[in-house]
Amino acid sequence: MNRRPAKAADKLVFVLSLVPYLLEQGVVDVAEAAEHFGVAEEEIRDAVRLIATSGLPGETSTYLPNDLFDIDWDSFLDDDVIVIVHHVAIDDTPRLSAREAAALIAGLQYLSALPENVGHAGLGSLMAKLTEGASAAPSRLAVAETASDAGLGIIREAVGRGRQIEFDYVNGVGERMRRRADPVHIASLGQDWYVQAYCHLREDFRVFRLDRMSGLALTDEPIGDHTDRPPLPEAIFRGSDSDLRVVVDVAPGALTLLSDYRADRSAEQVDGLTRVTLRVAHYHGLKRLVAGLPGLVTVVAPEEARRAVAEWARAGLERYGLPGASHGSSG
């Protein structure tokens, strides 16, 4: 078979791949290395000779014996076996700490639990490499599946199979109602997931927030033809005349996170914070909004809004038996 001469850049990439392989194997036959990389044996021998002339110059900017790679020449020339007996620069490569590796592995565990990634071999392989490549053994972490994760799996299956779903839904004003819908699109905004679906109760397209859906069930009923569905709006939250207005003090760095909820563009500086007016469909939604920005948002008015958030926070403290749960101002 005729082979095209390799370019210098290709040779460099090949050598950079070959060195870690040889170090990991310790002792390897030329034929074995050639089979592993899918190249001719002579290409392996040429690369090994190139490795033996490579290194990292010392402080004098000249190459001394210990600044170069070295191989067992007797094994290489007599037995066609490659053994690197001295290497340079490899041990200086930065390595992940045990905590960094554990954090990345936890993220990969979450991804591998998503329905579309179940059985994905690449994620498992990457987790194993992170474990082996860390400077110390990473802490063992387990990522628990949440109710939202389970619901998302049902909706993804419904979209993929073209089946209707049924669920209980709490709307913006706190009303709970059983719905049947044709899911057509799933989207995320920040930490929230939204489902665009044709609602059979309203006989129109609606956008449902996943964390307000419960009792999700996949039905055997096929969805209708919705090729003419409207595009998903860029701003999931859209105001209406029935919205409630709430005055809050916001840390300057968090102001952009509330841009979709701003009632207007007016703002006032108060004690280093920015005072703005938000619009919310219900004070129930305000609790969640404040909880998502801990320490960055303070409800100023009206008093009903302050009381709703304060009572919700105290209820959370009571569940943990923390001091301050049974008293405190409405702010």
Helix and strand layout, with pairings?
Layout: H1 8-25, E1 28-29, H2 30-37, H3 41-51, E2 70-71, H4 73-79, E3 81-82, E4 84-86, H5 98-113, H6 121-133, H7 147-161, E5 163-170, E6 176-189, E7 192-199, E8 204-209, E9 213-222, E10 244-250, E11 268-270, E12 273-280, H8 283-291, E13 297-301, H9 303-320
Helix pairs in contact: 1-3, 2-3, 5-6, 8-9
Overview of the molecule:
- This is WYL domain-containing protein.
- The radius of gyration is 31 Å and the shape is elongated.
- The protein has 331 residues and is α+β, with helices and mostly antiparallel strands.
- It has helices at 8-25, 30-37, 41-51, 73-79, 98-113, 121-133, 147-161, 283-291, 303-320; strands at 28-29, 70-71, 81-82, 84-86, 163-170, 176-189, 192-199, 204-209, 213-222, 244-250, 268-270, 273-280, 297-301.
- The chain is built from nine helices and 13 strands.
- The termini are far apart.
- The strands form four sheets. The chain has a five-stranded antiparallel β-sheet, with helices on one face. The chain has a four-stranded antiparallel β-sheet with strand order 11-12-10-13. The protein has a two-stranded antiparallel ribbon with strand order 1-3.
- It has four domains: 8-92, Arc Repressor Mutant, subunit A (Orthogonal Bundle); 98-133, no CATH class; 154-222, SH3 type barrels; 244-320, 2-Layer Sandwich (Alpha-Beta Plaits), CATH 3.30.70.
- α1 crosses α3 (41-51).
